Amino acid sequence: MFCEKALELIREVHRMSDGQLPAFNEDGLRQVLQEMEALYEQNQTDVNEAKAEGRADLIPSIKLRHCCLLRNQRCLTAYLYDRLLRIRALRWEYGSVLPANVRFHMCAEEVQWFSQYKKSLASFMRSLGGGEGLDITQDMKPPKSLYIEVRCLKDHGEFEIDDGTVILLKKNSQHFLPRWKCEQLIRQGVLEHVMS
To answer: pLDDT digit string (tens) for 80-129?
Structure first.
């Protein structure tokens, strides 16, 4: 049946919850493109035949195949656009370095797009704040206090805060640190916020 493979790509993305990125389905994408190529070639043949021999009975099948081409095109565009939206959201969630399990599900073009998006966002943030820059990825929710208590989930090494103090982040150690310095490490899974 026409457009089934394209619809399966849409279902695949729809099944994943927000914040998750399904593996890039290169085979499915290739099958849809091959189906579109076959539909286009059959339409070209029928259009030439309808023009040359005046066969009006071919017009409904030409229109059907053309509608299938347009539907496949919309499905592929929706599939790729949804993936880009998810990748953009992952930048805000994880920061500029994505975990290996997320990068594994991305194709080369998506990794390249992520890199360009990351550079564009960094350039924009540097342009804010009168030349000093402003990190707009911090404080995704308004903070209740400027300092928070955190527990280190894994050995991370030395961590320097603004006043020059160097803190050694060892597994299971607890620290009272500025929120804005910790948020990135919390998202990366190095620290966890300790609720009192």
So the answer is: 999 999 999 988 888 888 888 889 999 999 999 999 999 998 888 888 87
Q: Rounded to whole angstroms, how far apart are CA atoms 148 and 165?
A: 16
Torsion of CA 106, 112, 115, 120, to 10 degrees: -130
End-to-end CA distance of the chain: 59
DSSP-based three-state secondary structure for 133: coil
pLDDT above 80 for 143: no
At residue 147, the pLDDT reads 86
**pTM beyond cutoff 0.85:** no
Token code pair at residue 37: 């190529």
Contacts of 22 (CB under 8 A, 6+ apart): 12, 13, 15, 16, 105
